[in-house]
Amino acid sequence: MTTFDALLTNCRFPDGRIGHIGLAGGRIAALGEGAPATLSNQVPMLDIGGDLVLPGLVDGHLHLDKTLTGLPWMDHAAGPTRLSRIDTDKKILPNLPVSTEERAGNLLRECVARGTAHLRTHVDIDLESGLAKLDGVLAARERHRGQVTVQTVAFPQSGVMRCPGVLDLLDAAIRSGADLVGGIDPLEIDRDPKGQLDGIFAVASRRGVGLDIHLHEPGDMGLFNVHEICARTKALGLHGKVTISHGFCLGDTTERKARLAAEAMAEAGVALVTHGAGGLALPPIEMLRAAGVLVFAGNDDIRDTWSPYGTGDLLERAAIIGWKADFRRDEQVETAFDLVSAAGARALGIGDYGIGVGAPANLFTLAASGVAEAVAAHPPRKLVLFEGRIVARDGACLPAPLSIK
Ligand SMILES: [Zn+2]
Questions:
Q1: Ligand 1 centre from 156 Cα, in Å?
Q2: I need a labelling partner for 385 at 20 to 30 A (CA). Which of 55, 177, 217, 236 fits?
Q3: Of the candidate ranges 19-33, 36-50, 197-211, the one whose mean pLDDT is the lowest
C-alpha cells in the first residue's frame, strides 16, 4: 500500500470527474477516481468539497521591482510616453519608504494567494541603480522560496547603447544571479538595433543563459527586430531559450507579414509572451500557436508607476487576453488558460508541470465547473498548495507554508 503524507478528497478534475489526490514528499503520488481504495487512519485528509483543482499558474512576465503593492494608493504620475514612465520610475522608486525587497515580497504574496506557483520577473538594470534592484528581488525570492519559484531577467529599461556601461552591468547581473538577459526596443529606444542585439546576445552566449526582449515597436520597425532576433537565435544555437515580450508589431501588420514572422519565430524557437495590453494591438495568438510558436502570458505591470491596474491574478489576466482576442468557445477560453499554465511552464523550462503522478504538488482549488468557467469568472482561490504544503487559503497568503494535518 502506498503511504501518503496527505490525501485530498472530493477533487473535481478539469475533465469533470471527481476523485482524490495522494501527496507524498511534496509531490503527487497518486490520482484516482472516487475515494481511495485503501484508507489508513493515519493519513491526514482534506475534503476539497467538489471544487475544481488546477495546476499552479505561471506568470511569464511581470515587474516585481516596480510595484507599489502594499503601499498607500498613489495617483499615476507619469506622462503618456514610455520615456516619461522610465523617468518617473527613477524619481519615485528611490524615495519610497519601503525597500525593493519589501515591495517585491508584497507582490509575491499577492501572486501566491491567487494560485501562482512560478513567475519570471524583469528587473531594471541601469546606470543610476546598478544592480540594487536585482539584489532586492533576489532577497525577496529567497524569503519566499517555499511558496513560489522566481526567474529574473536583467532588464535594461533605459536602453543599452544610449547608456554606455549598461552592457557591462547586464553581464555583472548574470554573474550576480540573474537568470536571463533582457533587451528593449533596439530601434526606438537605442536607435541602434545591431549594437543592442549583438551586445545582449553576446552576453547571453558568453554566460550560457537565455534572453527575454521587450519589443513594443510597432509595424515594420518591430518586425525588422523580430527577424533580427530570430537570426541571432539561430546563429548562436539558442533555440527554445529566447522570448519576445509583447511583440505588438505582430498584431499591427498585414496577415502575410505576421505569418512570415511567425514562421521565422517557430523555426528559430523564439517564444512570445503577451499580456493583452490596453490600447495596443494583440498579437494573433491562435495563428502564432498554429504556426508552432510557443505563446504564453503574464501580468506585466501590477499596480506600479506604469499602470494602476492589476492584482497578480493570472486567471483574470487570461480572461482579459481572451476578451481582447474575442475567445468565446470553451476551447478558446482553455487556450487562454494554457497561456498562464502549461505553455508558460514550457517557456520557463519547468519540468514535471501539471496535475500528474510524480509532479510537484503545486495546485489550487476554486469553485468552478471547469477551466473555462474558472477563467471567465476567476473566483477566489480557496486553497493553494506549493510542493504539497498549504501556502494560501481563502484568497490570502499564509505567513509560512503549513503541512496538511
Ligand atoms: Zn514588461
A1: 11
A2: 177
A3: 36-50
